[in-house]
Amino acid sequence: MDTTTDRSGDVRLTGISRTYGSFTAVHPLDLTVPQGSFFALLGASGCGKTTTLRMIAGLEEPTAGTVRLGDRDVTALPPHKRPVNTVFQSYALFPHLDIFENVAFGLRRRGIKSVKKQVEEMLELVQLGEQARKKPHQLSGGQQQRVAVARALINHPQVLLLDEPLGALDLKLRRQMQLELKRIQTEVGITFIHVTHDQEEAMTMADTVAVMNAGRVEQLGPPADLYENPRTTFVANFLGTSNLIEAEADATSGDDVLLKAGACTLALPRARCSAPTAAGGRVLVGIRPEKISLTHADESAGIPAGRNRVTGRIAATSYIGVSTQYVVDSPVCPAFQVYAQNIDRDPRLVPGAEVVAHWNPAHTFGLDAAQDIGAGVAEAGVPQAAEEALA
Amino acid sequence: MSFATSFVRRLRRHLVVLAGLLTLGYLLLPNVIVTVFSFNDPKGRFNYEWQGFSADAWRDPCGVSGLCDSLAVSLQIAAWATLGATVLGTMTAFALARYRFRARGAVNSLIFLPMAMPEAVMAASLLTLFLNLGAELGFWTILIAHIMFCLSFVVVAVKARVLSMDPRLEEAARDLYAGPLQTFRRVTLPITAPGIAAGALLAFALSFDDFIITNFTAGSTVTFPMFVWGSAQRGTPVQINVVGTAMFAVAVLFVLAGTAVANRRRKQQA
Lengths: 391, 270
Hints:
heterodimer; A: alpha+beta; Rossmann fold; CATH 2.40.50.100; 2 domains; B: mainly alpha; 13 helices; globular
């Protein structure tokens, strides 16, 4: 199906909002989820992502705005009349029915008589054919999760809503289920809207991620785009880790803006800066820890010209197998993070060593300095190395 | 010495079993007496001393005048009281567990009042109420009183079950194309059924057993407990023990049947 021209199956939210008394869970929100896409709503708990999902399902009534499936306005439809199914966070399998009847529930409610073949095929798809006559409590967490998916998918909904579907599983099983869900989505071609607080989960599965914070969508785009070009400090800090350096626009050089941070001059491609770049403008210069190289100060002469440089002293290191994480104490940025792959480890890079951190200016991004520099840090969980350095 | 230590060790290992058996004996002894004396052949009017074996009472349980009539009245009242209290109590429990309304807190505590009120006081007050209303005492006044005092017990049993039910189950049903009625019939009712059944059983037992309130509100109607009380003044027929034993046997049969069904289900699933 050509999704670029066929828009008949899109989910369209227009000006949708939800308030509880004086608390606004979701601010007026416009969102279009293209048909057939795997869409993730990512955010910390209480950011309004689950409320948004429940409004699409019809389990929550919007205070204002409309929900459209294709051209059809479903805002006023009760949940049982919407061609939408949900995989609940706790799975919500019916404890008094066996697996077969759980999966058959939706078909039976729509008056379909011969369900046996369909249910058996669906149980095969999620590899639970053997368990059909068991009760939900007799299955493991991963199996229950697959029953929940089967119970929703068997109805061929226009949209499948997943509310933290992997939250209750352990890490290994979660990885496995991520791939499994992605495979199923590709196979059936149904639109998936997936709510999660786990940024890795959102990035591995979704085609498009919307990062939500305090009832608003902060930024929306493909995972790589969000990661490489965050436009707000919340996105920069919540999605992975970012080093943010407070700087002042100084001059321009070709397509780059030159910024002053303390004694350093940093270059930043103008196209990657979401803040005003007139001279004197305050900008937060951002760089991801894995894009940075560390060189001992004694060899700083060997660093190629044209790279952004920050000098400092190593405050802490932690070796985590695939990489080593350094926390560098620098005058322009306390707790500057650097992740270096363990290829040629320089034995002099130990706590107390004077170093130069340097990177290709093309990897730099610029954010408006009017924002809270620490937004999203607490929600994402402070990385271990930084925590140790602060302790 | 070695015998003493091994005895102590064995005692310690089986202490829980021993305590359990003693408690069970304590619970069952009265029932055993009832059963044994249903086979007595009393010489006088009182069935308090063992005289000799006889199955006469079992052959003719209705042989005492008025006994079977009173039993029929009690069973009827218990059945209707159970139905009334279960329906009203279940609806009350759902309202209290699900909805926030004005005076919900007050209703929540007032519902316990009939349980807390001394029964004799309640009975006397009910009599006053019925007399003032000019109601004719009998079957209907007993039934109204029984539904009233059974209601609280049903509410307590059902409410506990409703509160422990995951609200997402009903959302899941609605999400899977079940309308409000279907959701109630297919999900809410089956999941809360054990609570409702417990409430109903409790109501039946309480109504069938009740003497004090019934005695005050019965007028000339005689229920089984009233018959037993009345006859105890003049002499206790063996047939009372027969009815008691039969009720006990029916209850035990129900429990055994329930266990058997559960066992078979478990075997099928394994």
